[in-house]
Amino acid sequence: MQLIFLLDGGDPVALEVPEDSDSDLLYQLVAAEIATPPNKFLLLFNDKPVEIGQILITLGILDGSTLTIQHKKTKVPSIYEIPANTPPDQLMSLSRQHPELLQQFLRSDPELGAILQSEDLPKLRMFLMKRFMKGHQEEYTKQQVWVWILV
Fold first, then answer.
1. CATH number of 2-71
2. Distances in whole angstroms, Cα of residue 39 to Cα of each of 10, 28, 118, 125
């Protein structure tokens, strides 16, 4: 049977699919046609997702049916999702893998962003340790002030 696919408002693409095929084969054929892995898009028939593992005829997909190819939106990682206790080497690795994270670091904390951009691991370790110790020193100073107030 011949199925018609619409991708992002582009020209329709027709594919030949065996009558008794299931959605697994359909996803593989479409993936080969649009050069995109099957986990990066979703097939819609009558505005409903075509789930993997279903027989096409039971879904009502017949010869000449039109399906829509919808790319799945990928979530952009955020620096606020990174735990505070992330090791420096992992932090550097994350900034290498996700350039948008590095841009967020450069905007929100330029000093840390510059070190991550330089990819200098010893310098990053030293910077994080200084920041950690500075936080402890400020906390200690606050406690000392309270001691003087109470005395």
1. 3.10.20.90
2. 21, 10, 34, 37
- Encoded tokens for 137: 């020193």
Length of the chain as a residue count: 151
Does residue 108 surpass a pLDDT of 90? yes
For residue 22, what is the DSSP state? B
Predicted local distance difference test score (pLDDT) of residue 135:
80
31 — alpha (psi -120 to 50), left (phi > 0) or beta? Answer: alpha
Per-residue pLDDT tens digits for 48-96: 989 888 888 888 999 999 998 988 877 778 899 999 889 999 999 999 8
Query: Model-level pTM?
Result: 0.50
Domain boundaries, the chain: 2-71, 79-150
Alpha-carbon gap, residue 100 to 86, rounded angstroms: 18
In the chain the beta strands, taken as DSSP E runs, fall at 2-7, 13-16, 41-45, 48-49, 66-71
Residue 96 identity? R
